[in-house]
């Protein structure tokens, strides 16, 4: 029994809770209020992604627009125990699933929860969709589509299996033809390979005989070739040595010439050293005037830059300005104090009443007040004059302080006699230049004399090198004479060896061709033998595969024959069970006593439901819409009871849509009577006709 459903962001519902009970649960509301969404929420809770795939949709179809994720939570009572299924999902798929029994978690994840629901309820997603959840406009579909019942009973699986077996049979037969053709081709390849091997063996024997015949000549050729190359290499080595010796003698001659040039240069250097010694002794001695010259040059440069106003500056001017500034400041302070007193007296006089002072009570005339005002005005003018005088003195003091600093900076240079200093500076500059020239020449001469030891050492080395080069030239000349004497004899020996080499070369080339041909024939023979072995192995496999395919074809024929016999038998067994349940359900729901029994029959792959009356039977297509609705409901309940046992619940979405008032009334009665065989029925409608028979009303 479905007990409770909670949804969050599921299609039309942002957040809702629905409570159900046994009997008829009527979901009432206008079109678009979310009745179908409630039914879909139950389906999603039970079967998750399996339901989404089954209806050809996607998770986003069940999500409320603009929401990141949604939730469904379904509470059922199964066998007296409370089962809670909870699923969360987003646009791209499920985000989590949980199933608990009496508060204990038994399964997690989409697949595991769905499998647990199927095992607990004994209900697959196809059985739920075709039998228990009757969607809008599909009540009579079970009577209108011939293949519907076969799909529910899964008898169409026999046809699918037969088609699969038929495809397998055809594939095996095609493979049998391909493998047979391959086997024939391999037999031809084996025979061709055997003939090819015999031919190659005969040709190989001929080639090996010719190689054996030419082997003595090949041995003689290799010996002549060895002697020829040795003689040629010996003559070439002598010629190369002669060339190297000639080059060596030329290099030695150039080296001797270079040594002679170096000796001349060293001797010139030693002569320069002797000249430097004599010149160094004749250089004049000059005193140290550098310090005096630079000090005097700096003093003259600074003295020339002293401003004229600094030269004429008298330090007593600044002292006089400072004294005057102090006097003016003191005088200004005294006048300001006197001015403040007069201003206070004037303010008191202005507040006087009855011509008397408000402080002491003495007489106060208008003339006295005017005198105070004139005195205040005079003092204010004097204070302003003193302020201007102070500002002028401050400016003069600032300028005098700047001159004071410059005066003390240049004071050491003010007493310098520039004319005498410039004369003396000229003398010192001439002496300083002479000293620098003498020191530069002395440094140069000292550097020249410092080379003497290295030049002497270099002179000894060059003389030894000249002697060594002379000895090497004598030795190279002697060896060159020996080589020139041996070279003609080596050339003659090489010429004689080449003649014997060329005479035997043609025979050796023929030997190599015969040997190469024999090797090639051996490789071809090995390749042909490998190809023969491979073709023979493939032929054996092809024959084994042909045997297996023949057996498989026979088995496929047998399977198709068995399927043709099993499907009618299975249909008879299922029809018998369904008809037993159909009669029991139909007789409890019928509204006419004349309907004695009902039977589901099959003929030529088409199903029909026959209603038996005292006057014979009636086909379901001849019944009224209300009676067909009764029959469709009875058949669905019977199929559910035959396939899965007692139906735990049934859901009908808008079963009265497009029906007139009389037929709607009949559907209401059917739903009421349906609770006698189905514990919980959930029915939706945008009309209120089910409210009178409902045990629970949910209004949206």
Automatic annotation (TrEMBL):
Alphabetized Gene3D superfamilies for the sequence: Helix hairpin bin, P-loop containing nucleotide triphosphate hydrolases
Domain Zinc-hook: 311-405
PROSITE patterns per record: ZN_HOOK (PS51131)
Record's keyword annotation contains Nucleotide-binding: yes
Any one GO MF annotation of this record: metal ion binding
Record key words, sorted: ATP-binding, Coiled coil, Metal-binding, Nucleotide-binding, Zinc
Protein residues bound to Zn(2+): 357, 360
Pfam families attached to this UniProt entry: SMC_N (PF02463)
Coiled-coil ranges (or none): 169-283, 318-559
PANTHER family documented for this protein: ABC TRANSPORTER ABCH.3
Name this protein carries in UniProt: SMC domain protein
Organism: Pyrobaculum calidifontis (strain DSM 21063 / JCM 11548 / VA1)
